[in-house]
Design a protein that fits this description.
It contains twelve helices and three strands; from the N terminus they run ααααααββαβααααα. The protein has about 220 residues and is mostly helical. The protein has three domains: about 45 residues; about 80 residues, GMP Synthetase, Chain A, domain 3 (2-Layer Sandwich), CATH 3.30.300.160; about 50 residues, no CATH class.
């Protein structure tokens, strides 16, 4: 196996855990290079490891546990902690949430960059648990529907939350205008809106972002 193949974090983890030997890792890396399939999918397709053992290894890497999504909390407050389009984009589902944090279930090893992106978009602290891929995909379909929506729809969904902020600007007056505007700018919908705009701009490799005012 070429030296760069050892840079795959999942293969490294499985080698360290003794769940793969070097020869098996070479075979998986060669098949991955030949087909372009993700390492995780290649491992399972080649019957190199059972999914449950793979999940346990990834959970050990994260210092977390494997959960059964059939027993997950599907209350509206938990489901609303992450937009459906974001859940589908990253193949994660919420299992616990409060105002400051959310616990997401995943079936794969997430890079630090992805973790940062999720925390940035959701404006919450992120922690992870593991669950079988089939359960996560079923949960996504059942709770969030198909994958037809997009980040643009996530932005549109915030419009109703932002309406009261827009209405409040009409009522602002007197010497405390600066403080009032600062309070409104710090409201969660505004923060999420700006985060999502920035997130979409980064993904689109935009060179500039322009905000304007709309006059009635």
């Amino acid at each position: 196996m070429a030296e760069h193949d050892y840079n795959d974090p999942l293969l490294q983890q499985l080698l360290e855990d003794g769940l793969l030997n070097q020869h098996q890792a070479e075979e998986v890396a060669d098949e991955h290079e030949r087909t372009g399939k993700p390492i995780r999918e290649t491992l399972i397709d080649m019957d190199m490891i059972k999914e449950q053992d793979l999940l346990q290894s990834i959970a050990s890497h994260y210092g977390t546990t494997v959960v059964d999504l059939n027993r997950a909390d599907t209350s509206p407050s938990v489901l609303k902690s992450i937009p459906g389009s974001v859940a589908r984009m990253y193949n994660v589902v919420p299992v616990e949430a409060d105002g400051q944090s959310v616990v997401l279930a995943t079936y794969d090893l997430l890079s630090p960059q992805v973790m940062d992106e999720l925390a940035f978009v959701l404006t919450r602290d992120i922690s992870l648990v593991l669950a079988p891929e089939e359960q996560i995909r079923a949960f996504l379909t059942q709770q969030y529907g198909d994958s037809s929506d997009s980040v643009n729809e996530m932005l549109s969904a915030l419009e109703s939350e932002l309406e009261h902020v827009g209405e409040a600007t009409i009522k602002v007056g007197g010497a405390d205008v600066g403080a009032e505007l600062e309070d409104m700018a710090n409201q969660a919908p505004v923060i999420r809106f700006v985060n999502l705009v920035l997130f979409q701009a980064v993904r689109d490799r935009a060179s500039d972002i322009h905000f304007g005012t709309i006059r009635a």
